Structure formats: structure tokens, C-alpha cells
Recover the amino acids of this structure.
């Protein structure tokens, strides 16, 4: 028990971050599963984080209410901007969502209530381990159910061929908006959770770099299953910490590992078909 | 049998002696050694290493050697928290220095404060950092202590009647500098002709400077980082603006005035440290730094160097018990009384004035140096 206490007091924030990154990776997986390359998730995370933190600091709302507000607000924003933006596809959508991210960042920079570029500090420590575990579990369960439902099949159909899906009678625009909004909801939730264990938030945390980071998690892990994005998020969070002993070479090795994975496993680390094939071949060798 | 017990006694005595000798004082250093703030973090680390070597060469503190445990916090807030936790709970350091940026400090200092461990910032100038709690210390002089002196000195020297202001409004450092300037100008009743803004990465400032020129100010106050400041000064001269500049901490870079050449002539800058400070301790520091790292130190290295000497001064007066929690508490109680006549001048702590009125941490109580730029070089300005 002693070693666990030691471990927990040192690494609890890291474990929390793994959970939050898993949520973020799932949020972008959702939009990707509908064939949307959206880079707005960092901005939605920021909206969620700021709304939640401001409610806690200024109005002292209870934590569940804060989390809900932190998730619903970005979802509403997604509904508003989704209608015009989702008419675009491919890189054009990526560019539009990126621009939206910049709009959010600059808005936060210039508002008085958000503390501007100096950020918001003094956010109390409220997030606990079980909050993250519970929310992550509910999210995974819901997404797993969603995949097997009519909505999930529709997402899949849109991703594979939009025109064919439309011909089959799927309301493509509405389903796209749904994926986009749900993604924003999860990202906002992740932001709200994150703000309540890091004491401080600032606009620079929700910029372009982080949008790309979130995308990297999903792509690194693989987007064919739910496990992939979570695995990617976990690896991207833990790798720098595991490499800490390398000191000056840390960033170098970290980058090299990512490049190798992308080069040799272009469909991500967790790709069921390849893993099955691998074990199948091994069995064949033994026989 | 007797021999055995003798041997045992001998072993016991030896191991005790070993314990007494090996009582290294472990101090954590969490700075941004890679990433965007590495230029500051590395200088800070160098300052600490130099100070630790010197203290250990002189026999350490009451015979105990200082052992620095240095970690990279990459100027990211999560990383800052992780590193702080590792240093405090795993490496079991007596106290932690750092992190480099105020942002990381806001995230990491509550961790140290909750663990009842002293956290000592050497480069964090933002308002509200020492509000976090009684375990938070810093020897970085805040802009609100430096700028009033800078502006007052410049006003007297140039007999200023009105000034213009330009600042970057999307950067925590330049924006908070502007807020202080604004308050100082109000306090000193100096009228402002124009206030112009830019964003990070801008290279063309002619639009803002043309407007400033129209207002005909006697001086231009600039809360900018060195990158933008060089362009602003050169373009101002290009537009025929003759007014001198008054800079915040961002101007505090010898390189800036090498680049801008004569455009920066007559600029007033306030700084917690002057490399031309003629005090013997500073001369020795500059020489030792140059010998070890091959280059001139900067303000950040100087403040880190002083910070370790301040802690050493505090530790000299106490007896460490070996019980980590008790020792951390002892340090927290002794550190406020520590004073130093270091490379940044006479230093002492003063209790922070918090927004809530609750007891906070400890800020630096130190007079800044005022520079006047002459011939592309910083010269210490003496008020006559």
C-alpha cells in the first residue's frame, strides 16, 4: 500500500491526463468515424474549460452542474457553426475548423472575464480519479452502443461514400451535424475535467498545436476501433514521462518513435485485422 | 565474541559517520530546458549550477553538500505539475526552484503549497503568484516595482510631457507589462497620446507608428518582447520619429541593441540586474559564468544564482533534523528572514499583499537598476 501511495502522489496528475487525453481522442474519433476531418476539438475543449472554470470560480456551482455546462456550451457552439461549416469536406473542412479554433482563441484573448493572455488562475482542485473513470466508462459504453446502432451505421456509410449514403436515404447533413456536436460535447467535458485539476488555464493551451496533438492521438492509435484512439492518447501522454531519464534526448526519441509508428503502421497501432493476421500466421508456423 | 561485538560497534560507528557525512541537501530545480522558454530555462539552470558548485567548493552549508536535482518542465503546465510531484514525492527534495514561466507556476505552485514544500520562483513576474500560499517565494522583481522607477527616471531626464504606448496584446508577459505601465502613467499623471497594439509574430508596425507619430509624443513606451522591439525601433526611426523609447523587462537584452544599432539610442530600461554593476560579487559572477559556460550571463542566470545563495543563507542558520517534513517546515519559517547582498544587489523578502487578505507567500523587496542605452550598449544611469 505504501508504494501505491507514493506512486499515486507522484503520478496522479499523469493518470488524470491519460484519462482526459483518451476522452479527447474519442471525441475526434467520433467526427472521423463520420468522415469529417475536423480540427476544432481543441477549441471546443477550451470553451468547455473556460465555461466550467468561470462557473466554479465566480458562481460556485456544484461540480456536476459545472461539468454539464462545460459540455453543453461547446455542443451548442458546434450546432451553430456546424450548419454552415459542415457543407465543406476534406481539407476545406479542416481549414474552416482550424479558423474557428483561431476565432475562439482570439476571443478568449480579448475578453476581460477570461483573464486575457494571462489566463485564469486559482481554479480549485475538484476533479477526482473516479470522476474521470466514470465519465470515460460512460463515454466508451455510449460510443460502443452508438457504433452498433442505426446512427453508427449511418456514420459508417457516410464515411465510406457520401453520395451512396445519400442515395440510400440517409440524411447526411443531419448525421454529420450530430457527429460534430457530440464530438464537441465530449471535448468540452474533457476540458472541464482538465481545468479542475491543473489549477490554471490559458488560451495558448487550446491553439493549433493542441488541435494537431489530439488528431495525432487518434491517428497514432488507429481509428478503426474505439480502443485505438484511447491507446494513442495513452501512449502520447506516457511516452514523454517514460523517456524522462534520457534527459536532453527525450524530445528526439519521442519524435523518432512517432515517425517509426506512422511509417510502419500507417493505419495506427491498434488495427484488429493486422493483429489477427499476425497471430494467425504465428499459429500457422507452429502447426 | 568480543571481537564480533567490537566489529559490530565499529561498523555501527562507521555507518553513523557515513550518514552524517552523506547528508546531502537535495534541492529540486524544475525549469524549461526544451521548448519555447528554453532560452530562459537553460540560463537559469546554469545560474543554479554555478552557485551550487561554488557553495560546495567552499565546503557546502554547515558541511552538507548541495545536490541539485534538475528536471525539464518544457514550459507546459501539466509537465510542470508532473515534475513538481516527482521532485517532491519521489526524489524527496527539501524545496523546489522554478518553474520558468508564470503560467507553469500557477499550475505547479499549488502542488508544492499543498505538500507543504517551499517553492521558489526566480523568473516569475506575474501578479498573483504569491497569492497561492505561504510556501510560495520569489526573488524575481515584479514589473510593478521596476516600471515606476523607470518611468520616473525617464520623465526627469527627458522632461517628458506626453508619451505614446505600444504593446503586444496577446502575450501574457507584454500584456501584464502594459497593465502596469498604464497604472504607472496614471499615478505619475503623464498624459498618453496614443495606445497601439500588435500581435505576436507581426513584423510591420508602420500603421501603428504612423498614428503614434501623429500624436507627437515626447517618448514611446513599449511593452514588447525583444523580437518585436527591434523592428519597432528601426521602423520608428525610418518614419522619422525622434522620440526615445522606454522599455519593460522585454527590452532587457543586450542583443536587441546590437540589432537595432543607433535606433535604440537613448532608451531607458529598468532591470533587476546589470551586467555592468561594479560590485565585486557581480564581477566575480560574470567572470565565473563566462569561464564555465563561455558567454555572458543574463538577468535570469543572475537571479537563479542569487536565489540559491539566499536559500544557502537561510540554511546556514538552521540545523536540519533529517525528518523531511519538519525540515521543509523549518525552511519555510526561516527563509523569509534571509537577506543577501548578491549580484542583483541588496535583497530581502517582503510579505505578499494578497487579493483575499489571507496570508500569502513572499515577494522580492529589491531596487531595480536603471539603464540608459548609449552607443548600442547598456550604461548604468546615475541620477545626478
Amino acid at each position: 500500500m505504501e508504494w501505491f501511495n507514493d506512486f499515486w502522489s507522484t503520478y496522479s496528475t499523469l493518470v488524470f491526463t491519460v484519462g482526459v487525453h483518451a476522452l479527447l481522442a474519442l471525441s475526434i474519433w467520433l467526427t472521423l468515424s463520420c468522415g469529417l476531418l475536423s480540427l476544432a476539438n481543441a477549441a471546443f475543449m477550451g470553451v468547455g474549460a473556460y465555461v466550467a472554470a468561470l462557473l466554479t470560480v465566480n458562481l460556485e456551482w456544484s461540480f456536476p452542474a459545472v461539468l454539464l455546462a462545460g459540455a453543453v456550451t461547446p455542443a451548442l457552439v458546434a450546432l451553430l457553426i456546424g450548419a454552415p461549416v459542415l457543407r465543406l469536406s476534406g481539407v476545406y473542412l479542416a481549414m474552416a475548423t482550424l479558423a474557428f479554433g483561431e476565432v475562439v482563441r482570439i476571443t478568449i484573448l480579448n475578453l476581460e472575464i477570461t483573464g486575457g493572455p494571462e489566463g485564469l488562475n486559482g481554479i480549485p482542485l475538484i476533479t477526482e480519479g473516479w470522476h474521470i473513470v466514470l465519465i470515460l466508462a460512460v463515454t466508451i459504453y455510449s460510443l460502443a452502443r452508438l457504433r452498433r446502432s442505426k446512427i453508427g451505421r449511418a456514420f459508417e456509410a457516410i464515411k465510406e461514400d457520401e453520395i451512396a449514403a445519400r442515395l440510400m436515404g440517409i440524411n447526411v447533413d443531419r448525421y454529420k451535424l450530430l457527429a460534430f456536436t457530440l464530438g464537441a460535447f465530449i471535448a468540452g467535458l474533457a476540458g472541464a475535467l482538465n481545468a479542475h485539476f491543473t489549477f490554471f488555464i490559458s488560451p495558448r493551451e487550446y491553439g493549433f498545436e493542441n488541435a494537431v496533438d489530439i488528431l495525432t492521438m487518434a491517428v497514432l492509435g488507429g481509428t478503426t476501433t474505439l480502443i485505438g484512439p484511447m491507446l494513442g492518447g495513452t501512449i502520447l501522454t506516457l511516452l514523454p514521462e517514460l523517456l524522462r531519464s534520457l534527459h536532453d534526448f527525450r524530445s528526439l526519441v519521442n519524435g523518432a518513435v512517432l515517425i517509426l509508428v506512422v511509417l510502419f503502421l500507417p493505419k495506427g497501432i491498434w488495427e484488429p485485422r493486422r493483429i489477427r493476421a499476425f497471430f494467425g500466421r504465428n499459429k500457422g508456423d507452429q502447426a | 565474541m568480543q571481537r564480533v561485538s567490537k566489529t559490530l560497534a565499529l561498523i555501527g560507528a562507521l555507518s553513523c559517520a557515513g550518514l552524517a557525512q552523506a547528508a546531502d541537501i537535495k534541492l529540486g530545480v524544475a525549469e524549461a530546458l526544451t521548448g519555447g522558454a528554453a532560452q530562459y530555462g537553460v540560463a537559469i539552470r546554469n545560474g543554479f549550477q554555478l552557485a551550487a558548485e561554488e557553495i560546495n567548493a567552499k565546503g557546502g552549508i554547515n558541511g552538507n553538500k548541495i545536490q541539485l536535482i534538475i528536471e525539464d518542465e518544457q514550459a507546459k503546465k501539466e509537465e510542470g505539475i508532473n515534475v513538481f510531484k516527482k521532485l517532491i514525492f519521489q526524489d524527496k527534495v527539501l524545496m523546489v526552484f522554478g518553474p520558468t514561466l508564470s503560467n507553469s507556476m500557477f499550475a505547479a505552485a499549488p502542488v508544492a503549497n499543498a505538500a507543504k514544500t517551499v517553492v521558489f520562483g526566480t523568473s516569475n513576474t506575474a501578479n498573483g503568484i504569491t497569492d497561492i500560499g505561504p510556501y510560495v517565494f520569489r526573488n524575481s522583481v515584479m514589473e510593478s516595482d521596476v516600471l515606476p522607477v523607470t518611468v520616473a527616471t525617464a520623465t526627469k531626464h527627458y522632461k517628458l510631457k506626453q508619451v505614446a504606448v505600444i504593446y503586444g496584446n496577446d502575450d501574457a508577459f507584454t500584456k501584464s507589462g502594459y497593465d502596469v505601465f498604464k497604472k504607472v502613467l496614471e499615478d505619475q499623471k503623464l498624459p498618453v497620446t496614443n495606445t497601439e497594439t500588435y500581435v505576436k509574430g507581426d513584423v510591420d508596425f508602420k500603421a501603428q507608428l504612423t498614428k503614434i507619430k501623429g500624436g507627437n509624443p515626447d517618448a514611446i513606451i513599449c511593452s514588447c518582447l525583444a523580437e518585436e522591439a527591434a523592428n519597432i525601433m528601426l521602423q520608428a526611426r525610418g518614419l522619422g520619429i525622434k522620440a526615445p523609447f522606454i522599455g519593460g523587462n522585454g527590452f532587457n537584452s543586450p542583443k536587441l541593441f546590437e540589432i537595432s544599432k543607433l535606433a535604440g539610442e537613448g532608451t531607458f530600461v529598468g532591470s533587476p540586474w546589470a551586467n555592468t554593476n561594479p560590485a565585486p560579487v557581480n564581477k566575480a559572477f560574470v567572470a565565473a559564468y563566462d569561464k564555465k559556460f563561455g558567454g555572458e550571463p543574463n538577468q535570469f542566470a543572475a537571479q537563479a544564482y542569487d536565489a540559491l545563495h539566499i536559500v544557502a543563507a537561510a540554511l546556514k542558520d538552521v540545523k536540519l533534523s533529517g525528518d523531511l517534513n519538519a525540515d521543509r517546515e523549518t525552511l519555510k519559517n526561516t527563509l523569509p528572514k534571509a537577506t543577501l547582498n548578491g549580484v542583483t544587489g541588496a535583497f530581502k523578502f517582503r510579505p505578499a499583499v494578497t487579493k483575499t487578505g489571507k496570508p500569502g507567500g513572499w515577494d522580492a523587496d529589491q531596487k531595480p537598476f536603471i539603464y540608459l542605452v548609449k552607443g548600442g550598449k547598456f550604461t548604468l544611469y546615475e541620477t545626478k
The beta strands of chain A are 120-121, 200-201.
